[in-house]
Amino acid sequence: MSRFLIIWGGALILLLFIAIYFMVNGSGIASGLLYENFIIQVILFLIVLFLKNILKKKVKTRSISHK
Predict the structure, then answer these.
(1) Is 45 left (phi over 0), alpha (psi -120 to 50) or beta?
(2) Is Transmembrane among the key words of this record (predicted)?
(3) Closest by alpha carbon to 58, among 6, 1, 9?
């Protein structure tokens, strides 16, 4: 579990740095917005997957503890 969290944390931090880089160094407003929107969508998608995995694990541990 800890290794899983470290990998996801690293990936999210890396994506945030990339998003910030494009926001600061976007070549032109149109391409900058395009990159920002794409990266924000990717980050949101990863966060949703991350939360789904956590919820699944919590449900599994709860069902085991109840038995």
Answers:
(1) alpha
(2) yes
(3) 1
The tens place of each residue's pLDDT in the chain, 67 residues long, gives 678 777 888 888 887 787 777 666 655 555 556 666 777 788 788 888 887 887 777 766 666 655 5
Is residue 18 within 8 Å of 39, Cβ to Cβ?
yes
Q: How many residues does the chain have?
A: 67
pTM of the model as a whole: 0.40
Q: Give one DSSP letter per residue of 1-67, joined into a string.
A: -HHHHHHHHHHHHHHHHHHHHHHHH-SSHHHHHHHHHHHHHHHHHHHHHHHHHHHHHHHHHHHHHH-
